[in-house]
Each structure stands twice: as C-alpha cells, then as structure tokens.
Design brief:
This protein has 430 residues and is an alpha/beta fold. It contains twelve helices and 14 strands. The strands form four sheets. Strands 1-4-8-5-11-12-13-14 form an eight-stranded mixed β-sheet, sandwiched between helices.
Length: 430
C-alpha cells in the first residue's frame, strides 16, 4: 500500500496549495492561457461531427402531493428530475432498465450531450445492438438528486425563497438519490425494473436499489463499486471539498449571488480526484516523464510534464460543466454511503431473503473500489443463497476502466442481460 500512502500525502499537499488562494488563482489563470489540449489524451471520445444528435432531457416535477422524505429528516416538495430514455417500453412494462451514473456523470449516457456538445459517457454500452440493447430494452438514465444537469440540487431555485438553494439545499445521501429515482419510475408507470445497472457511484445506487427496493427490480449489475465508502475514499473527498471551500470565490456557498465562481478550488478538486480514477501503470504508460511541448526543463512552475498539462486540462474543462456546491453535496452523499447502516453493520443481513439476481464486476487495477470490496459483497450474497455472478476483469486502466473500451465488460453485460431476458420471457413490441 505504499502507492496509496504516497498519493494521500500528495493529495493532502493540495490542501495547502488551495489555501494559498492568491497563488492558486494566479496559477489557474496562467493555466487557462497556457494549457494546450492534445487530442490523443482524450479518453472515450469520437469525432464530434459524427455523434448522433439525441436532444435535451425530459424534466418532470415530482413530489408535489407526496414529498420526498430525506435521510436527514427533511423533505423536498416539489422537486425536478431530469432524465433521458431510449428504446420502447413493452406492453407489460417488463423490459425497463435503469442506468445510474457516476459522481460527475449525468443523464446523457449516449448520443450528443446538448449541454457540452460532447459524446455521452457510455456510448459503446447503450444503443441498438449494443450490450444494453435499446432494440430490446427501454433504458432510462436520470440525473441524480443534488447534481447540476436539471435535477433539483444546490444550483437550482428554492421555491420557498425564489433564490438559488446554495447551502440551503439539504444534505442528501445515496438513499435519497434512489428514493427520487423510485418516484420517477412510479411516474413512468413501471412497477418492476428488469435491471438496474451502474458503475462507481452508479453501482452504489444499484446496491441500494437491491437492498432497499428489492421487490422493484429483477436483476442488479454494480460495476467497479462497493458496499460502503472506505476511510481512504472519504479522505480523498475531503481534500477536494477543502480545496473548493478554501477558494475565496466560493463565498460560503453563495457564489450564485455574484459573478465570481470558485473555479480554482473546483479545478484542484477535480485534478486530485482524477488521479484516483487512473492506475499507476496507466499514468506511466500514457505520460511517463515526457515533457509537454518542450525539449528541456523550464525550471519554473508551468506545466513542464505532459501529466501536468493533462491534469490541468481535466480541472479546467470540468469547471465549465459542473457546479462546485453540487460537488460538495454528491461527494458527501458518497461518504455517507453504507448499505449495512440499517442492518447492524452486517452485510449478510442486508442481503438476507433477496431474490434479486446479481452480476458484479471489478477491475484488477482499480485501487479506488477494489476487487476485495466486490468479493465481500459476493461472499455475503453466497451466504444467503442469492444468485450472483462475479467477474474480475484484467485491465490496467484503473477505476475508469468501466467507462473505456472494454470488450470483456461489454460481453458480460450483453450475455447477462440476454440470458436473464430469455429466462424472464421478456418480449418487445412488434
């Protein structure tokens, strides 16, 4: 675990950098002027001109007559949920799949994201003839509660005040995100989902569905995920939150009332987090110690190395599409996540009596949500006699592997869904 220890030290150092806000703001400004994006660095993107136009999400208002009860004891009423759907719901409404996005994802899992102009985050997984086949299934992806792409969160207007929520938005949990999704599924008239699928934070939502709403889904597929957030991952998130809150432009969360935004702090938070999404091998093979657009060291603090330029790009591009307060709320929700919290901390007890069929995947190089954590879920499911398949995929790209070109993962998703659809007798409309 030497690698992790060194990384923690590095991330803690970022707190010091963020607290020296004058230098940070200068550095951020310099980065905006000097950073050069190299296309070969971009992952999981295609020619923008060839991306299928898919339109804006649907936004529905929910909870007017039945307020959303939050884990904190507070309520939300009404609240909006933004979602996208693909495919056709069959006559008996048995072919619906809910896809849950990760921390900084959104409802635009495929097609062109109209907010960013970029391709969706799972283009090789969802679509006609793809692993989650929209010729067979009705696929739904909703922006999570607390996020910033149309679903109610700190960025949206508080109906009680007519002003942006900011930190007046209640603290939420993964359970609250799922509760909002349940209301959406009810709104769509779907009694039972064929499957709930998601990676990383999306996998956390999957697990809460499987434990808290086991009668509302047939199958569950958590990928590169876990059953509770570890102390190490809480520490990573705290570094990011402190970077945001140390930025003077954060203004105690009230930056919506001014023209300033905590871009420097949010950029640092994203940079720190992005390191955890990759493996040491992938960083070394992609960048090594290669210099960025120069043949010798500058003996200064511009981006001498390609990895520095890449991280700065990740941070700077992130602030254009994500809200700082949303980042605080969602990372806190992940930190609170523990599906055993209502089961005396006992994972086996949480799964007891389930008839949900599970397909769990992990990646060998994922040190953020390790194979060990996936195996703990598998052992607990085996202990209660649940039906569970487990695959550890050998891939050296780190946690982000589930977002990349991974034929083995594609085959597993396709095979599992096809087999279960045949068993369930799922039929599409003719």
């Amino acid at each position: 675990m030497t690698y992790s220890a060194e990384l923690i030290k590095f991330l803690l150092f970022l707190i010091v950098i963020s607290q020296r806000f004058v230098d940070l703001r200068v550095s951020f400004s310099r980065s905006l002027k000097t950073i050069k994006f190299i296309k070969s660095y971009k992952m999981n993107e295609t020619d923008e001109h060839n991306i299928e136009e898919d339109g804006f999400a649907e936004v529905v208002k929910l909870g007017e007559d039945d307020p959303l009860q939050l884990s904190s004891g507070e309520t939300l009423s009404p609240f909006n949920v933004a979602y996208k759907s693909w495919g056709t719901l069959n006559t008996d409404k048995s072919n619906a799949i809910l896809v849950c996005h990760a921390l900084t994802g959104d409802q635009y899992a495929r097609g062109k994201n109209p907010l960013t102009g970029k391709e969706g985050w799972w283009p090789k997984v969802i679509g006609p003839g793809l692993p989650i086949d929209t010729d067979k299934f009705f696929v739904i992806c909703a922006n999570v509660l607390g996020s910033c792409s149309g679903t109610t969160g700190p960025k949206e207007i508080n109906p009680d005040t007519g002003k942006v929520y900011g930190l007046d938005f209640p603290v939420i949990t993964i359970a609250d995100m799922v509760s909002a999704q349940v209301k959406l599924i009810d709104y769509l008239g779907i009694e039972k989902l064929f499957s709930v699928i998601g990676g990383s934070m999306g996998g956390m939502q999957v697990m809460h569905w499987a434990v808290g709403y086991r009668d509302r889904l047939r199958t569950a597929m958590p990928i590169a995920s876990t059953w509770r957030h570890s102390a190490q991952n809480i520490a990573f998130h705290e570094v990011g939150r402190q970077a945001i809150m140390a930025d003077p432009d954060w203004q105690g969360g009230k930056y919506a009332e001014s023209d300033a935004r905590p871009h420097a702090g949010l950029s640092v938070a994203r940079m720190a987090a992005h390191i955890t999404y990759m493996s040491e091998k992938s960083l070394t093979s992609k960048f090594g110690r290669n210099l960025q657009d120069r043949d010798k060291l500058t003996f200064g603090f511009d981006a001498d190395f390609q990895i520095e330029s890449y991280l700065r790009y990740q941070g700077i591009s992130f602030v254009d599409r994500f809200d700082a307060n949303s980042y605080l709320y969602i990372t806190r929700a992940m930190d609170y996540y523990d599906i055993t919290s209502n089961y005396n901390g006992n994972l086996t007890e949480a799964f007891d009596g389930t008839d949900v069929k599970f397909c769990i995947m992990s990646f060998t190089s994922d040190w953020l949500y390790t194979t060990r954590e996936s195996r703990e879920m598998v052992r607990a499911l085996n202990a209660v006699g649940a039906q569970v398949s487990f695959m550890e995929i050998d891939m050296d790209k780190g946690h982000d592997s589930f977002l990349l070109d991974c034929p083995e993962m594609f085959n597993i998703i396709s095979g599992f869904l096809s087999a279960e659809a045949e068993v369930a007798g799922i039929k599409t409309n003719e």
